[in-house]
Amino acid sequence: MSEEEPLTSNVRPATDALITVRIIKSFPYRNVKNLIIKDIDLKSTTPAQLFTKVITEINTLGAFRPFRNVVYDSLKIYSQAHGSKSMNLVINFDNDKDLVLLEKGESISDKGLWDLGVRNETEISIFNWEEYIEYKKNPKEEW
């Protein structure tokens, strides 16, 4: 009988998770920069609190200076650990109803991220909702 190793995404508790936030500056030009957030409590952190934390990081870290001229107002799950990823390299177009955590600055729920399906090693996108809708109508990539 062989013992299988647990998946690395399942080893960390929900109160000490790691997530990646994909900061999207431009959809057509695919300008995306990742922010790794460690030691986040998924059970007590709400989407609004995560949003505030990410905006603070964008406005204080020098690496995100080029990303400061976008009005970010939405959060959406891009992918889960060990799950399938979207064919689109910028954002996941699928299932807005279930994957959007914050839309136009309005929290979809006051529940914690855990209750909304965010797990350890989840990737979440932060972006401007109006630009997302425009890009979704015509997902043409520019150079």
UniProtKB/TrEMBL annotation:
InterPro entries for this protein: UPF0538 (IPR018794)
Highest rank taxon of the organism: Eukaryota
Family under the similarity heading: Belongs to the UPF0538 family.
Name the record gives this protein: Altered inheritance rate of mitochondria protein 29
Source organism per UniProt: Candida oxycetoniae
